[in-house]
Amino acid sequence: MKQVATDQLDPSQMSLSFRGVKRLFHQDRSNNTFPRLESRDLSNTQFSESTSSWSPSREHSQTFRIVNALGSCFVPSKKTFEDNEKSGSMMTIREYRSVNDNSGISYFSVAELEQATDHFSPALTVGQGGFGSVYKGRLKDGRLVAIKRARKNPRDPQISSEYESELRVLSSVEHLSLVKFIGYAEEGLERILVVEYVNNGNLRQHLDVKYGIVLDLATRLDIAIDVAHAITYLHLYADHPIIHRDIKSSNVLLTENFRAKVADFGFSRSGPGAFDSTHVSTQVKGTAGYLDPEYIKTYQLTEKSDVYSFGVLLIELFTGRRPIEHNRERNERFTIKWAYQMYSEGRAIETLDPRLSTGSSASSILERVLQLAFECSANKREDRPIMKKAAETLWNIRKEFNSFWNYRPVLTASKAAVSEEPPQN
Predict the structure, then answer these.
(1) Is 85 helix (H, G, I), strand (E, B) or coil?
(2) Which residues of 177-190 are buried (b: 16+ CB within 10 A; e: fewer)?
(3) Are 310 and 376 in contact (CB under 8 A)?
(4) Is the entire prediction scored with pTM above 0.70?
(5) Homologous superfamily of 85-196 in CATH?
């Protein structure tokens, strides 16, 4: 099968890489640190074995790092990566509007969005990230929206890249379980996106019980199904296959009815276009703990990279634990490894979020979900199911235990949204 062509490093780069391998033999293991759990360009980050589903032994750890370093001698050059990042064939917002005047996508002036957010008042900030700040705002027609304002740093190419990537994706997709795009603003150094306001916080906040609400098991499975459907749509039913590349709990927003909407497409990439292509060669971007280990080693991005992240998310969703728990005992620090060990010993029910009640149905549901999660997070991408198959498996679990939903508690939407209301226009 034909694969995407890649450039090789020149001899001087190869020499530097081999010298780097030599240093690995003498590097103190204590220097291994994990990146912070945030979305960023990780193309220059040295990863330890924590990025794999099952952490290798001490001996295998050194081998893993050496193989990664050797592999860097044969990965595409940085220029190839940058060209590939810019070569996504998804339609831009300007192209989208030119062919579909009834798209419903609006162009806003910065002045309009300043008015909508009381001049970008800190009191209306609902999110912060490497890209910039997200504000709650009210448009002239009364709609509540989320306004994502990029940091004004012309020397940071990543900001421009994330902005363009999100524009391309949001302007070309529409699904109930994806955050809806409303419009954008571009003036001078200002780069602003306007999307629907999802008023019930994100999944990670609810798993941390930040708003005093414990998500019951049935609601968690419904959330998993919503996310699976969203990713399936991106992979199979969008105009062009799209790889999200940053599936994680903080990028899953919840409505007042606790339905999930996937957000944040700053790292998204168009997938392989030709029928005989197997992957896209690109820089490593994403969040530590959710990253596909094969993608890290080979720089080859596929839809199965999203599947891996979804497997991590499934375990996080039902255990309540983050992918990497720095403050736990060593044998519980990597949640996937810990959960797999418990599952293998027939103690799967002990991995369930302790805030949830247990029972025969809960135990059966959990075991089925964990089995799927481990399949999704297999180290080799060929061992992972496609996203559509994962969604079907979750839906079949729900149908099989449909009576379980009759006894679910009634959840009331939290006060996750900021109390300050945007100005009335």
Answers:
(1) helix
(2) bbbbbbbbbbeeee
(3) yes
(4) yes
(5) Phosphorylase Kinase; domain 1 (3.30.200.20)
Lowest-pLDDT range of 100-109, 118-127, 219-228:
100-109
Residues annotated as catalytic are 246
3 state SS of 13: helix
Which CATH number does 203-407 carry? 1.10.510.10
CA–CA distances in Å: residue 82 to residues 22, 86, 283, 353, 357: 29, 6, 8, 42, 49
Sign of CA dihedral 239, 244, 107, 88: negative
pLDDT for res 69: 42
* Sequence spans of domains, the chain: 85-196, 203-407
DSSP reduced 3-state for 331 = helix
**Which residue ranges are tagged as binding site?**
152
List, for residues 131-186, the tens digit of each pLDDT value: 889 999 999 999 999 999 988 876 676 777 788 888 888 888 999 999 999 999 99
Residue 166's pLDDT is 86
Report the Cα 371 to chain-centroid distance in Å. Answer: 21
Would you say residue 310 has pLDDT above 70? Answer: yes
Between residues 145 and 23, the one the model is more confident about: 145
AA identity, residue 271: G
Cα 333 to Cα 137, 325, 337, 349, 395: the distances in Å are: 39, 5, 8, 18, 30
Rounded to whole angstroms, the Cα distance separating 129 from 185 reads: 19
- Residue 74 — φ and ψ, nearest 5°? -125, 15
Supply 43's token pair.
């193309």
Strand partners, 136: 146
Name the binding residues for ATP: 152
What percentage of the chain carries pLDDT values higher than 90?
55
Which amino acid type is present at position 298?
T
State the chain's mean pLDDT as an integer: 79
